[in-house]
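Hi P.,

Sorry for the delay on this. The queue was packed all week, but I finally got your sequence through. Input first:
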Amino acid sequence: MAFDAFALILAMLALGLLFQRLRVFPDNAAEVLNKVVLYVLLPASVLLYAPRLELNRDVLAIAAVPWLLLAATVLLVTGVSKLLKLRPDEHAVLLLCVALGNTSFLGYPLVRALLGEDALPYAVIYDQFGAFLILSTFGLYVLARYGGDAKPTAGLIARRIVTFPPFLALLFGLTLMPEAPPAWIAGGLQRLADALLPLVVLAIGLSLQLKLPRDELKPLAAGLALKLAVLPLISLAIAPLLGLQGQQHDTVVLESAMPPMITAAALAISHRLAPGLAAAMVGYGILLSLATLPAWAWLLQRLS
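Then the structure:
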């Protein structure tokens, strides 16, 4: 299954890059595909797997990991920024792109491929109560602090949360959605969830930019090392301390190893925060993760 998934990733990424070069699709094609993913495919995935969750102490432990990694990110990025004498906008991009991984668009299908379908409910918790809430709070703060926006209000944060389609699907899935819905509903949701990976990677290929910011090579290298290597190592260390074992343990480690979140980088670019560095963090992060994610999955298998 994992080999099939990565073969599909490479194929769809190559197609996306080819279509981008040939201008087969309109310029906003990647944006349209991402909206299909956000409003249709991700909610379907959440509805499919969220009802299987048992709300217990382990769920809180899973949700705690990305917040603990956020604290580690702030300390590590602050140290790197001082060591490399980074500009404030470069510091902001590393805060966003190291703290926030692609834990839904890529995270859901890759966790399923590398760890099995039973791991998906844990990935949903990590993403929705971790990455999404961090983006909606800490992410907005960083954009306001370094991008010149007004300070985000509690009302703005609350509106962002309650209008986010996958989060609404999570609430519905945890409260009203039966664990075993009728076959025609479960089958439809499964087909939509299966379409998540190819559409996401095609959209990435259509928008992928691999321009290397030569004056920002050091922050790029440092940011990707922190995101793809250091944070998963920290997650590997703290997960057992929180009582996480088996698939729960492996899921939080693998989710922490996902490449930088596309949305976080896009927000940084829209706020004119080191746009070259933000684009490179996503582009090169995705390419490098094609090697690092299987390596982490192999290590987790050996440790188990």
